[in-house]
Amino acid sequence: MTQRTLVLLKPDAVKRGLVGEILSRFEAKGLSLVAMELRTIDSTHSDGHYAEHVERDFYPPLRDFVTSGPLVAVVLEGDEAVDVVRLLNGATDGRKALPGTIRGDLSLSNRENLVHGSDSPESAAREIALWFPGLAD
Q: Any bridge partners for residue 39, and if so which?
């Protein structure tokens, strides 16, 4: 089933020069690039994106991190794109992510873990509408 999903290459990925390497992993898997934009976000945009986490203890430092510098927002499309991206990303905590995944190979942090991927088709639709309103269904 062809799906679209949102991926964020977080400020640490941009700062470390890993954008090309990370995107190439998604493309090598067969996912197609639909939209991409380098941008910075403010706290309001972060709160909208991470709405389900705003009241959680871990969120304020996450907000500070994602608003700290440029990130790359990407819409990818392909067969079972949501699940494929999540498998390629690896476990949220880069210290526990399996080798061969983006986080397992390139991250040693839980918060600064390089990438975000939508966790369901419903989240993907909401997130794509937030980041790329022109692509909303």
A: 71
What is the layout of strands, in order, in the sheet containing 2-9?
32-39, 71-79, 2-9, 115-117
- Could you read off the pLDDT of 62-121 as tens digits, one per residue? 999 999 999 999 999 999 999 999 999 999 999 999 999 999 999 988 889 999 999 999
Record the pTM: 0.94
The percent of residues in the chain predicted with pLDDT above 70, rounded, is 99
Contact 35, 132 (CB under 8 A): yes
The number of residues making up the chain comes to 137
Residue indicated by tokens 């990925």: 13
In the chain, where are the structural domains located?
A: 2-135
From the candidates 45, 49, 53, 116, give the one annotated as an active-site residue: 116
Overall CATH class of domain 2-135: alpha beta
Beta pairing, strands 2-9 & 115-117: antiparallel
Question: Is 45 one of the annotated active-site residues of the chain?
Answer: no
